[in-house]
């Protein structure tokens, strides 16, 4: 097997923070944080589409990156070499999971049957590499957005033939994910949305999307898929309005069609921010509803209004994310998938390593800070004190639902004065900073 990165060895943890070159400065896989190793907590995953497939093109320019595994003699040979290169990258980085779309790993053929055949032969190779290395599949998914047939959407297309094609594609992708023992299967509504309501039957599209998801949940049971089905919300892009806008609206959608027990959420940082939320907001909303399944770990640029899918380096954001994950008791079937790509000008193959290291170190730091914040109970104690009025007197009656408007009016008309606690945001922000500065 060809080595694609002969100049890069296994990336190791270095205690030396100022060491140059590729090494981990925060992520120490075997270090325990609260009884679990960092590796167990963080469950990093490599995204096949970005890391193995992104060539650097943007709406104004061509690819800037020609990857060494792309010189194969045929599309299938390239697909095979891509698998070997992917496993080399993951092994060198110590990444134990990966994710893919069906079309990331094998090229489309002339017919669906031929496409499925291509997929099967690459899956065989992946399966072998997985058993040789112990690397596992975090989740699989189907690409229902690149091919022109999906111009009007997939499950929400106006064209029933496209709906049927998408169903066949998802059926196959679920089978392949099951075959590879995937811990999850993701539905990101690539083109499930609309550009204008002038030409859109919203009711029909939503009903069809729900039926599609219902069939998928039924089929997962039928084939004995043991992973978690996940919805990945995103408010816009590629369509102007996407139906799975954010966690709150997607949860309302699932509930109104009785689907909420079959799905959880895969929450992507850059999608939450595109929806006008913080990453933590969507994580929190999912967590308190017991719907937090997995995370697409990336970040956007606050000055750009699109999904820039950058590697996550914002320590506040990784700390907040890890707080939510720890509060939930850790990932069960989820993980931190780097749905992130190097910048167009970071075109050299070794930039792939630097980018993942940056993301892994940022999450390691976030984990250490979050764990200490949780252990010390600083935020929890502050919050429970802030709301303590509900544990006595009239507040206790409100939280026990033992009162009504008339009694509350009587209370409010009484002699008492209102005395509010301070929110102390700035104090808490400085405490948070201290936890981040000192986390080890
Ligand atoms: C695109 C999405 C996509 C999903 C998988 O914005 O993030 O990459 O994660 O289809
Ligand atoms: Ni994503
Ligand atoms: Ni995205």
List the helices and strands and how they pair.
Elements lengths: L31 E2 L2 E2 H5 L1 E4 H6 L21 H19 L3 E5 H4 L6 H22 L2 E6 L18 H20 L4 E4 L5 E2 L7 H21 L5 E4 L9 E2 L4 H10 L6 E6 H6 L4 H10 L3 E5 L18 H13 L8 E3 L12 H26 L1 H9 L6 H7 L5 H9 L11 H14 L2
Parallel strand pairs: 3-4, 3-12, 4-5, 5-6, 6-8, 8-10, 10-11, 11-12
Antiparallel strand pairs: 1-2, 7-9
Helix pairs in contact: 3-5, 5-6, 6-7, 10-11, 11-12, 12-16
Bound molecules: D-xylose and nickel (II) ion (2 copies).
One nickel (II) ion binds next to helix 9.
Q: Would you give an account of this structure?
A:
This protein is of the alpha/beta class and 440 residues long. It contains 16 helices and twelve strands. The strands form three sheets. It has an eight-stranded parallel beta barrel, surrounded by four helices. Helix 6 packs parallel to helix 7 and helix 11 (315-327) packs across helix 12 (351-376). The longest helix is centred in the last third of the chain and has 26 residues, at 351-376. The model has no long low-confidence stretch (mean pLDDT 97). The chain binds D-xylose (XLS) and nickel (II) ion (NI) (2 copies). One nickel (II) ion binds at residues 268, 270-271, 307, 309, 339.
Tally of helical runs: 16
Rg, rounded, reads 24 Å
The number of E-state strands comes to 12
Span of the ends, CA to CA: 39 Å
Strand percentage lies at 5-15%
Order of helices and strands: EEHEHHEHHEHEEHEEHEHHEHEHHHHH
Ligand types = D-xylose, nickel (II) ion
- Rounded mean pLDDT score: 97
Overall SS class: alpha/beta
Output the strand order for the largest sheet. 3-4-5-6-8-10-11-12
> Shape, please?
globular
Largest sheet geometry? 8 strands, parallel, barrel
The percentage helix is: 40-55%
Low-confidence stretches: none
């Amino acid at each position: 097997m060809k080595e694609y990165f002969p100049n890069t060895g296994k990336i190791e943890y270095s205690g030396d923070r100022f060491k140059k070159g590729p090494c981990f400065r925060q992520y120490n896989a075997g270090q325990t944080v609260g009884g679990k190793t960092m590796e167990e907590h963080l469950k990093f995953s490599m995204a096949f589409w970005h890391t193995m497939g992104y060539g650097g093109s943007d709406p104004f320019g061509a690819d800037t990156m020609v990857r060494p595994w792309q010189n194969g003699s045929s599309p299938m040979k390239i697909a095979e070499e891509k698998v070997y290169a992917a496993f080399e990258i993951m092994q060198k980085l110590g990444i134990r999971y990966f994710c893919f779309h069906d079309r990331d790993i094998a090229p489309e053929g002339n017919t669906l049957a031929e496409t499925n055949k291509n997929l099967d032969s690459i899956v065989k190779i992946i399966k072998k590499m997985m058993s040789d290395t112990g690397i596992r599949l975090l989740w699989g998914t189907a690409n229902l957005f690149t091919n022109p047939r999906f111009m009007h959407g997939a499950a929400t297309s106006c064209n029933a033939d496209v709906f049927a094609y998408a169903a066949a594609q998802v059926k196959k992708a679920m089978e392949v994910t099951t075959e590879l023992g995937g811990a999850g299967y993701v539905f990101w509504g690539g083109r499930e949305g609309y550009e204008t309501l002038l030409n859109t039957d919203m009711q029909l599209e939503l009903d069809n999307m729900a039926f599609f998801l219902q069939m998928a949940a039924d089929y997962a049971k039928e084939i004995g898929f043991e992973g978690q089905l996940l919805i990945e919300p995103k408010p816009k892009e590629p369509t102007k309005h996407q139906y799975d806008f954010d966690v709150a609206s997607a949860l309302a959608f699932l509930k109104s069609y009785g689907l909420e027990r079959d799905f959880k959420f895969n929450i992507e940082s850059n999608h939450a921010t595109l929806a006008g939320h913080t990453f933590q907001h969507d994580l929190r909303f999912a967590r308190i509803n017991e719907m937090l399944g997995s995370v697409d770990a990336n970040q956007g640029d606050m000055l750009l209004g699109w999904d820039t899918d950058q590697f996550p380096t914002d320590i506040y954001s990784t700390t907040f994310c890890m707080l939510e994950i720890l509060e939930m008791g850790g990932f069960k079937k989820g993980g931190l998938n780097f749905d992130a790509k190097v910048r167009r000008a970071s075109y050299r193959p070794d930039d792939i390593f630097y980018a993942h290291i940056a993301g892994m170190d940022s999450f390691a730091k976030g984990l250490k800070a979050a764990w200490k914040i949780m252990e010390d109970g600083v935020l929890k104690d502050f919050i429970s004190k802030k709301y303590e009025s509900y544990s006595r007197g009239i507040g206790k009656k409100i939280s026990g639902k033992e009162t009504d408007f008339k009694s509350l009016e009587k209370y409010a008309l009484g002699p008492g004065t209102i005395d509010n606690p301070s929110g102390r945001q700035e104090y808490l922000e400085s405490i948070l900073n201290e936890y981040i500065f000192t986390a080890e």
